[in-house]
């Protein structure tokens, strides 16, 4: 279909760029490099070659600007630079760096674009470049969408190589030995006679040279680090309790605060009664903030005690108060007027003939609930604002806080911290704004604001709810047609509205993980419908694909069973993208697909491509009187290039566990306008005893490098549901599954 | 510390619902005169005792040989095994795996935090496996409770003493954290035990 | 109140009700023990009190008074790792790592009482410690490795 002709009304972030900054940019602005932020406060005798490498006479510092939420990206970024710079782990320090437009994310544009990731036609690549140009002009530094490796893979190796060549030039200038005869290793330039000059010794001279810009990158066959197991840089700190997360940071003179904001999100606070909270031990102050109240105390727990004593009078929520009404709003959205886009319309689903199957699917609100409750330290003085916390969008953060405290953005300084999990919650800014609101009312004093876990749940922006209505036809043992309509509120719209950005066009995340799967089904239609905004929602690990992918693959499985075909063979018959086919074939081999299973056992397969990475999962379950036991899982993913096989395995397993756990037993429901689930007892996800053995394999057939933080999440739910069907004959069309079946 | 707690409760505007007697309160043991209670009144007292025994605040820790406590009651959609794969072991205090007291710590005052681990001023534990109540019928529990082989050799007076001394039992009527307390109150429950005992421990199957 | 924390006498002027967790974190500056849920649902705050694993968010300071408390900082240091920590480093268990202090303390307590735990025992003992990144398969493997290290020691 004429996809390129319809781009104009799509959800380009490019549109939001214009809305946000009013920027006009020409070729020059897109091509000109950003200034190197490291050059601004460069100490005498130190050298910087680009925004990622800083060498002083004392040490080598590599800047890893992507936020580390546990995905190991600090180590991975450092490894990419170190690969070309010829420094080893242990010979450098890694810093998150200061927020800067120079760290704009080259790869973040893709998920907002209405193209299949497998679509590499010239015009599509041009659109990606245009979008990337917009993000560059905006200086959009950010971590998300599993883009860190795609963004960094070339850029950081080039940064390392350019620094290395400049250091060689400095060594050549000093010794008179031609650059071509110099080698580098172990953070030193090696002369032909075997003497070594440490990079740190060359810093002063290198600083006087115009940095080398263009260097040919090494062939993969020469890689020392990439593709080999690494020991991540944070492992010792995280195994000894010595690594400080944001919640652990201490600033001289700091006080402890916590907040209570209307749990009917967006609703006002009409008033509050202190109920003696001000007189409770340790309480320093009680201050109002937007839609709520904060307690400042000398100890976090004393602040918690006091906030619980305060009684607030909450206004209504700007969305339906009862969960049933949220579902009604979704059901009512399957109408022409709310058609967001038609993503595929191949063949003719109406005209196809065969036995017809229909089904309806649901995906609930789900909380992020990272292990580290949200927190931030903010210090506001008349001259500047300092912020210590972990966040994924540092540029937007500084802009938003500058607006709040009425400082110039140059005087707002964000110091990124290690993050104890995010799953998307640290894309949101409320917790930092709340800390800033408190600190702004007590200028000079650093305020550490910590959410109680209950506030974290009450004030999460969960994954959006969605419904899928599917129909399809089978004939002669084959699937001949499939139609899937999905209705959901726009997660992108909800999220961006909170930073004042209006996103035009269709939301590509409503159908993500469905239409883009590379199946050559002769008759295939996929439409998305945009429900009105309900509860405020946000990107949750893999965003749209855990819901839409569950609908898509589960229903495909229904059709395959109705046709009497083998779930693996029929998927293989339909798939038409080579790396994706390979992923399915490998998971079939790994799981010994087709081999005999015991009584009450079943296995299910699912395949979903998200964030450019095709992933197939096979799950095996056993049914007992007490419920379903997950016995084993097999995961095969293609990321183009595996940077660190250990971290890769960790992320692949973690994503599958995250997907299974939430599919089993997690949902957020609203009653009286408030989330009913307040802590992990009501939103458990997977515990160790439920965790199966997981066998994984990484493939490298894709031609682009992809991130692995998200893509193994979406196939887990349908693979589990398909396995349960195989074992029990019960088809579960709604997450969480425990509403329909018990797990042991 | 009691005083601190009371004043804190007032400061917090807490309203302790239900019971008159709370953890640590003494009960009075005044059995009716021998022969003064007929079978009908004895059975009526038993029905009330059963309401208590089968209530989640009691039955959840009177579970069987799998040594798994239960989570059930108004705040749970369906009765389920205690989360986190908790297993109290044959020791019934978790000694083989994780001690109940790892979370259910010893505490002098009410732990009034919603969804937190209930705590009392003694070691948290499951009742002996002989006293399995969860999901059992009135008739079953009645026969168990009067069987010295399965009630630790207690007569009605000893049962009443046990209710007086075992603070974990007092907790059932003052569970805190927004939990629904067991029905009636501790003193009424003790009185019912005494009435039932004086009536000759009647069960419906007699 | 007085406590012995990681072998040192420490004092804190706190109320009976303050959970040991917050005495450690905000009064004594020991940040390795983490706040995750406050209601014994996640285990991130696990420490040893008189040798027994305890959720420090549930233990009133007044009940911990006078006890011998070991936190993750006292179990081993980056220079002198405890066998469990060694195993955690070798297996590269941590992702975000926020739950791992608690996981390690619980695992160390498990190996104190059962030097060679089966997977079934590990699954009972460790299931009170929530990990949202999904490091469970590595935790299981690391517990077995730590058990071997302790037996060989």
TrEMBL record, chain A:
Organism of this sequence: Candidatus Rhodobacter oscarellae
Occurrences of domain Aldehyde oxidase/xanthine dehydrogenase a/b hammerhead (ranges): 240-318
Membrane-traversing stretches: 12-30
Keyword terms of this UniProt record: Membrane, Oxidoreductase, Transmembrane, Transmembrane helix
SMART domains cross-referenced by the UniProt entry: Ald_Xan_dh_C (SM01008)
Domain of life, source organism: Bacteria
Name under which the protein is recorded: Isoquinoline 1-oxidoreductase beta subunit
Enzyme Commission number(s) from the entry: 1.3.99.16
GO MF assignments: isoquinoline 1-oxidoreductase activity
Automatic annotation (TrEMBL), chain B:
InterPro entries per the UniProt record, alphabetical: Multihaem_cyt_sf (IPR036280)
Record keywords, A-Z: Signal
Signal peptide positions on this chain: 1-22
Protein name as annotated: Putative Isoquinoline 1-oxidoreductase subunit
Organism name: Candidatus Rhodobacter oscarellae
TrEMBL record, chain C:
Positions of the 2Fe-2S ferredoxin-type domain: 1-75
Cross-referenced Pfam families: Fer2 (PF00111), Fer2_2 (PF01799)
SUPFAM superfamilies per the UniProt record, alphabetical: 2Fe-2S ferredoxin-like (SSF54292), CO dehydrogenase ISP C-domain like (SSF47741)
Keywords: 2Fe-2S, Iron, Iron-sulfur, Metal-binding, Oxidoreductase
InterPro entries, alphabetized: 2Fe-2S-bd (IPR002888), 2Fe-2S-bd_dom_sf (IPR036884), 2Fe-2S_ferredoxin-like_sf (IPR036010), 2Fe-2S_ferredoxin-type (IPR001041), 2Fe2S_fd_BS (IPR006058), Beta-grasp_dom_sf (IPR012675), Diverse_Oxidoreductases (IPR051452)
EC number annotated for this UniProt entry: 1.3.99.16
GO molecular function, one term: metal ion binding
Superkingdom: Bacteria
PANTHER family from the UniProt entry: BLR6218 PROTEIN, OXIDOREDUCTASE WITH IRON-SULFUR SUBUNIT
Entry protein name: Isoquinoline 1-oxidoreductase alpha subunit
Organism: Candidatus Rhodobacter oscarellae
């Amino acid at each position: 279909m004429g996809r390129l002709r319809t781009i104009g009304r799509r959800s380009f972030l490019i549109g939001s760029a214009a809305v946000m900054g009013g920027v006009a940019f020409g070729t020059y602005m897109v091509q000109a490099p950003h200034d190197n932020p490291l050059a601004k406060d460069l100490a005498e005798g130190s050298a910087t070659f680009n925004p990622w490498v800083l060498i002083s006479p004392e040490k080598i510092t590599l800047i890893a600007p992507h936020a580390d939420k546990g995905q190991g990206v600090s180590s991975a970024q450092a490894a990419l630079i170190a690969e070309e710079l010829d420094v080893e782990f242990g010979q450098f320090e890694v810093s998150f760096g200061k927020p800067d437009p120079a760290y704009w994310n080259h790869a973040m544009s893709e998920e907002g674009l209405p193209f299949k990731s497998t679509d590499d036609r010239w015009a599509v690549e041009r659109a990606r470049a245009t979008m990337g140009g917009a993000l560059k002009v905006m200086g959009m530094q950010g971590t998300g969408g599993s883009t860190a490796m795609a963004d960094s893979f070339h850029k950081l190796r080039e940064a390392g190589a350019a620094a290395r060549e400049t250091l060689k030039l400095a060594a050549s200038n000093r010794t008179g030995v031609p650059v071509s005869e110099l080698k580098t290793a172990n953070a030193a330039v090696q002369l032909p006679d075997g003497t070594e000059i440490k990079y740190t010794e060359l810093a002063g001279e290198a600083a006087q040279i115009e940095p080398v810009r263009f260097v040919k990158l090494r062939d993969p066959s020469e890689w020392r680090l990439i593709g080999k197991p690494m020991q991540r840089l944070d492992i010792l700190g995280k195994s000894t309790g010595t690594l400080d997360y944001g919640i652990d940071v201490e600033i001289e003179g700091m006080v402890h605060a916590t907040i209570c904001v209307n749990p009917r999100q967006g609703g006002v606070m009409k008033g509050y009664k202190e109920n003696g909270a001000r007189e409770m031990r340790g309480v320093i102050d009680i201050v109002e903030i937007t839609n709520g109240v904060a307690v400042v105390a000398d100890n976090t727990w004393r602040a918690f005690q006091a906030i619980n004593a305060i009684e607030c009078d909450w206004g209504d929520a700007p969305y339906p108060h009862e969960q049933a009404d949220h579902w009604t709003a979704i059901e009512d959205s399957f109408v022409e007027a709310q058609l967001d886009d038609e993503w595929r319309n191949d063949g003719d689903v109406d005209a196809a003939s065969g036995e017809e199957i229909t089904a309806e699917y649901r995906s609930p609100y789900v909380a992020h609930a990272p292990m580290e409750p949200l927190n931030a330290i903010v210090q506001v003085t008349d001259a500047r604002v300092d912020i210590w916390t972990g966040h994924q969008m540092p540029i937007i953060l500084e802009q938003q806080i500058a607006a709040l405290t009425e400082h110039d953005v140059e005087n707002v300084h964000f110091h990124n911290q290690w993050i104890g999990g995010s799953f998307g919650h640290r894309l949101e800014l409320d917790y930092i704004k709340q800390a800033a609101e408190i600190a702004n009312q007590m200028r000079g004093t650093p305020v550490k604001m910590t959410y109680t876990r209950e506030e974290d749940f009450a004030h999460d922006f969960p994954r959006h709810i969605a419904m899928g209505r599917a129909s399809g036809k089978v004939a002669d043992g084959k699937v001949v047609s499939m139609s899937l309509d999905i209705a959901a509120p726009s997660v992108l719209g909800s999220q961006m509205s909170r930073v004042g950005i209006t996103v035009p066009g269709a939301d590509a995340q409503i159908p993500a993980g469905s239409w883009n799967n590379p199946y050559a089904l002769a008759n295939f239609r996929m439409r998305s419908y945009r429900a009105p905004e309900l509860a405020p929602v946000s990107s949750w690990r893999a965003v749209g694909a855990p819901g839409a992918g569950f609908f898509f693959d589960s229903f495909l499985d229904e059709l395959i069973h109705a046709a009497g075909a083998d779930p693996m063979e029929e998927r293989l018959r339909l798939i038409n993208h080579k790396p994706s086919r390979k992923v399915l074939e490998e998971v079939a081999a790994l799981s010994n697909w087709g081999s005999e299973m015991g009584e009450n056992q079943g296995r299910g397969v699912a395949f979903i491509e998200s964030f450019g990475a095709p992933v197939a999962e096979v799950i095996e379950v056993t049914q007992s009187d007490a419920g379903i036991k997950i016995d084993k899982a097999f995961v095969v993913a293609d990321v183009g290039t595996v940077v660190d096989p250990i971290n890769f395995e960790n992320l692949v397993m973690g994503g599958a566990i995250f997907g299974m756990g939430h599919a089993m037993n997690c949902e957020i429901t609203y009653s009286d306008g408030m989330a009913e689930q307040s802590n992990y007892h009501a939103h458990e996800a997977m515990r160790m005893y439920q965790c199966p053995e997981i066998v994984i394999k990484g493939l490298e057939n894709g031609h682009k490098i992809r991130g692995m933080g998200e893509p193994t999440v979406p196939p887990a739910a349908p693979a589990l549901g398909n396995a349960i069907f195989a074992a029990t004959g019960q088809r579960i069309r709604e997450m969480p599954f425990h509403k329909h079946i018990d797990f042991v | 510390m009691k005083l601190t707690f009371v004043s804190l409760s007032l400061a917090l505007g807490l309203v302790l619902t239900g019971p008159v007697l709370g953890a640590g309160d003494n009960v009075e043991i005044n059995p009716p005169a021998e022969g003064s209670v007929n079978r009908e009144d004895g059975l009526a007292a038993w029905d009330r005792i059963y309401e208590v025994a089968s209530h989640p605040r009691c039955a959840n820790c009177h579970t069987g040989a799998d040594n798994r406590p239960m989570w059930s009651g108004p705040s749970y959609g369906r009765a389920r095994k205690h989360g986190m794969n908790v297993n109290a072991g044959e020791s019934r205090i978790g000694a083989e795996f994780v001690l109940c007291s790892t979370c259910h710590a010893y505490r002098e005052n009410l732990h009034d935090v919603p969804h937190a681990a209930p705590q009392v001023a003694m070691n948290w534990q499951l009742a002996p496996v002989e006293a399995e109540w969860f999901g059992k019928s009135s008739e079953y529990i009645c026969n168990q409770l009067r069987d010295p082989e399965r009630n630790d050799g207690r007569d009605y007076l000893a049962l009443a003493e046990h209710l007086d001394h075992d603070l974990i039992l007092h907790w059932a009527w003052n569970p805190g954290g927004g939990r629904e307390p067991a029905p009636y109150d501790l003193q009424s429950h003790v009185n019912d035990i005494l009435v039932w005992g004086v009536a000759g421990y009647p069960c419906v199957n007699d | 109140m007085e406590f012995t924390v990681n072998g040192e006498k420490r004092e804190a002027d706190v109320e009976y009700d303050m959970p040991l967790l917050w005495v450690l974190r905000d009064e004594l500056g020991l940040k390795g023990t983490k706040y995750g849920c406050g209601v014994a649902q996640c285990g991130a705050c696990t420490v040893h009190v008189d040798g027994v694993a305890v959720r420090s968010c549930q233990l009133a300071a007044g009940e911990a008074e006078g006890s011998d408390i070991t936190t993750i900082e006292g179990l081993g240091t980056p220079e002198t790792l405890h066998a469990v920590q060694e195993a955690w480093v070798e297996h590269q268990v941590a992702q975000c790592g926020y739950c791992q202090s608690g996981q390690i303390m619980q695992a160390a307590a498990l190996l104190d009482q059962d030097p060679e735990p089966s997977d079934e025992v590990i699954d009972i003992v460790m299931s009170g410690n929530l990990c949202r990144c999904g490091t469970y398969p590595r935790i299981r493997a690391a517990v077995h490795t730590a058990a071997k290290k302790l037996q060989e020691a």
